[in-house]
Design goal:
Strand content: under 5%
Largest sheet: none
Radius of gyration: 22 Å
Shape: elongated
Amino acid sequence: MNNDKCCSCPESLAMATVPMQEWCEPYDFETALMEGTIFPCLNMPFFKADKGESNLKSTSLSGTPAEADREAKMTELSTISFAINDLTLYLDTHPDCKEGLTLFKELLNKRLDLLAEFAGKFYPLTQISMITGNPDSCCYDWGEGPMPWEGGKL
């Protein structure tokens, strides 16, 4: 074997190209969370799998109405947060997309509103929601609410 060359083949076996993603109308956000993307045009599973039941659609695992309400709000917040994260990946490569930027701003505002609503009703989930959810608080109440291992859901 000749040590001067890694391969003695003069031809290339393949050359990969990846087309640039274009904007497509996003899924509703509950569907997006179940599918793993907000963009239907990117939803190209390699293996066709049976559609299972979603945990998002299930009834609350908790017993009391307050716990069920908390879990419903947490699911809504998780859904919006997922959409923001997925849209961020799109905007990293398409920073001038007006539709994407408009949706991004709407979702950020909605997430801030949901964080404030959740903090006001239950407990703060982020440092920002300590102020927006309970602006009159006179203590640092970051430790309020159950931890995930204590029954809280993230």
